[in-house]
Design brief:
The protein is an alpha+beta fold. It has a 3-stranded antiparallel sheet. A two-stranded antiparallel sheet has the order 3-4. It is extended and about 55 Å long. The two termini are 14 Å apart.
């Protein structure tokens, strides 16, 4: 099974080619975009929702603490503190493309 992995540099070179700008400039824009997304999701607010039309929704929400979680290897009970959980939900256009048969 071949898996194609794209990096930020691949995305930047494609954006640079489409917009007619340098790859270095496109890479700086993409870096800033991801930094802004990360900063919004890591904010001190309990619920954060970032909606990018025609792409999808990034969400960050708190989870409850689990005082009686169990380690499956040792069967030992452990305490898991409350933390934030992130999720991505694809938009309509992406979802329709992903549902097409291969």
């Amino acid at each position: 099974m071949n898996i194609k992995t794209y990096t930020k540099r691949d995305i930047a070179s494609e954006v640079a080619k489409r917009k007619g700008i340098s790859t270095r400039k496109a890479l700086s824009y993409i870096d800033e975009f991801f930094i802004v997304i990360r900063d919004y999701l890591c904010a001190d607010q309990p619920y954060v929702r970032i909606e990018v039309r025609n792409f999808g929704v990034f969400e960050s929400k708190p989870t409850k603490a689990k005082p009686r979680a169990r380690n499956p290897r040792t069967n030992e009970e452990i305490y898991v503190p409350a933390h934030k959980k992130t999720r991505f939900k694809p938009g309509k256009i992406m979802k329709s493309h992903l549902r097409k048969p291969i």
